[in-house]
Amino acid sequence: MRDTCHRRRAMARTAPYFTRTHEDPAVYHNQDDCPDGTQILGDNKVVDDPVNRSLCSMCAKRGYGHYTDWLATHTEDAAEHLDKKLAALQKRVHGRDEALSRIKAYDEESAEFAEIKAKRKALENKGKLTDEEAATLGALKERYGELYAALQAKAVQHKKDLDALKRLEGDEARHDEGQIKRAEAEVEVARRSRANCEEAATGLAKAHAAAIHGRSDPEKVELIADVVMNEARGQDPYVKKCLAYAYLNLTGGELRPPRGAEISYFTRSNIRFDDPKEGDPVQYIKSVAESLDAVRERLDDPNPEKTDPTGGANHWASPKKLSAKKRQEYDTKTGSYSWLNGAKKIVLKEIPEETFTFFKTSK
Length: 363
Known about the structure:
Blueprint: E1 13-19, E2 27-31, E3 45-47, E4 54-55, H1 57-62, H2 65-124, H3 131-169, H4 179-212, H5 218-232, H6 237-250, H7 269-272, H8 281-299, H9 304-307, E5 315-317, H10 324-332, E6 344-346, E7 357-360
Parallel strand pairs: 2-4
Antiparallel strand pairs: 1-2, 1-3, 5-7, 6-7
Helix pairs in contact: 2-3, 2-4, 4-8, 5-6, 5-8, 6-8
C-alpha cells in the first residue's frame, strides 16, 4: 500500500446497494458513507445489480474520493514539508548574515588596527616629538591596546565564522556548493511537490465533473476511464483518446466492463492506485484525469464514425510489452492472437507501432 500516514479515512466504493422501498427517482449507491445511502435501514437495504436505477448524485460526486482524499492529505503534508524546509533555509541564511556581520566588524577593526600600528610606528621612529604629537602617540597606544585585546578576544569566533561561511555559501576548493544552495534546492523541490498535488487535485476535479456532466450513469463513465487507464495509463493523452474510441468500437458503444479475454488483467484504477509498483501517485492521478478527458471527448463526439482517430479500430496490441511467448503468438498470429488473422492493421503515424498497434476486425 502507498504511504497513508495521517491519512483521513477515504470514502470507499462498495458493491451497489439500494432500498427496496419505492422512491422517485430510483437510485442506487456505491459509496459506504453516502449521506442518503446510510439512511437505508438494514431490512430495506438490497445489495444487488441496480438494473435500471441511476447512480445517486451524492455517490457520483464522491466516486473519486479515493484519489481526492489522498491528494488532500498529501497536499497538506507537502505544505508542512515546505514550511520546514523554508524554516531550515531561513535559519541558515540568518546564520550566514550574522557571521557576515561579525566578519565585517572584525575586518573593520583589523583595518583600523593596522592603520594605528603604522601611525604609531611612524611617530615612535620620528625621535623628538612635539607636545601635540606626543599626545597623539599616547592616544594611538591606548587605542592600539583596545583593538589588540578586542581582536584577540574575537579571533576564535572569527575563525568559526569563516569556516561557517564556507559551509553555508560553499567552498570552491572542495567543490562544495554550500548548505544554503542545497537548502534553496530543497525548498524548490518542496514547492514543486505542493504545486504538483494542487495541480493534480484541480485537474482531476475538473476532468471528473466534465466527464460525468449530464450522464445518466456517471459510474459507467468512470468504468470506461478505468479501461483506458488499464491499457494506456503511461501514455500521452492522444493514445488515451484512441483507446477510448477503440474500446467503445469493441463494445458497440455500450458502456460496460470488459468481457472474457477482451482485455488482459483488467483492474479498477482505484485498486491499482494502491500498488507501489505503479510509481508516482500524483502522476497516476493526472493520468486518471487524462483518461476521463479522453472518454468525455469520445462520448461528446456527435459523429464518432467520421471523427474516430483510429478509423474504426476495435482491437489493439502493445507489442513492446509482450512476454516472449506472447510476442511469438503476436508475430505468428496464433494462440491468443489468432484474431489477427483477417484483421486490418490501422497505422497511426502519431503512435509508434511497438507502443500501440490498432486493428479492425469484423467481430
